[in-house]
Predict the structure.
Amino acid sequence: MSDRPLIAVVVFPGSNDDRDAAWALGSVGAESAFVWHEETSLPEEAAAVVLPGGFSYGDYLRTGAIASVAPVMDAVRAFAREGGPVLGICNGFQVLCEARLLPGVLRPNRQLEFVCRDAALRVEAVDSPFLRRCVVGQELVIPVKHGEGAWYADEGTFVQLAARGQIVLRYTEDVNGALGNVAGVVNEAGNVMGLMPHPEHAVDPLLGSADGGLLLAALVDAAAAHRLAAAQIETRASRARTARAL
Amino acid sequence: MKATVLVRPKEGILDPEGDAVRQSLRKLGFEVATARVGRVIDLEVGGDDVAAARSEIERMCGELLANPLIESFEIRLEER
């Protein structure tokens, strides 16, 4: 087994940031493996999953809707249920919302224009593993590029999410009409995160910012921890089997 | 059996596409107070049991055709 945890990058027809994600994950210490949407399982050694940006299935029906029922999503759902870290970026965030692994939904930008620029984000909560390398109040600069990035949830859900620290990133200004300027959320357990900005495009100061690397490196930390936990469970199970055999 | 599913942005949900359509209609000189843009999905499903078809299509709407957070749906069945 390599020292570097393996991260599965799911590829849907129309994904286009899968290679950037794999490259960026490599730059922060992970190996990655592409997993085609028709696969019904993830690689056995996969210690985290990334759903990359793009326009899966041509954004038919609603962004992320068709991908949310792709064969691979059952495996992703099972992986998340076991506590495995799952990160959805842009279209990946839309897919996770449509799959109901994350709260809310991404709607067309209020200005009906594609936005493509650096966005300033404020870190709102750091309880989930993805934010472990950040502090509350920290400002990150990470580019956005989307036409359907206006996150929405009903008021009650929104208030509850904020109280539980599930709203993890907000834009410092109105970028797309998102409720509460929300840019990223996590699930209740904290092991599934989605965000519209692209951390994989911000891992080198030469390209304007390396702030995305903080999120991706934290994902790699979470992957390593998940791999270790899975190995310990396997060791205990194997000891129990041996004990029974004796 | 033929069925038509009408998916609409829920009442109270901002519909920027509808707004853009309304503005363009006004530019053309039409008096339009509101415009909302939804989606029409025509289906052909097996069986003759209308009630069964309706409940099946309701499930389709819940699982894929509409997102209940932001969209409402209406099912119209065309009996032969």
Remarks:
- The two ends of chain A are 29 Å apart (CA to CA).
- The first strand of chain A starts at residue 6 and ends at 11.
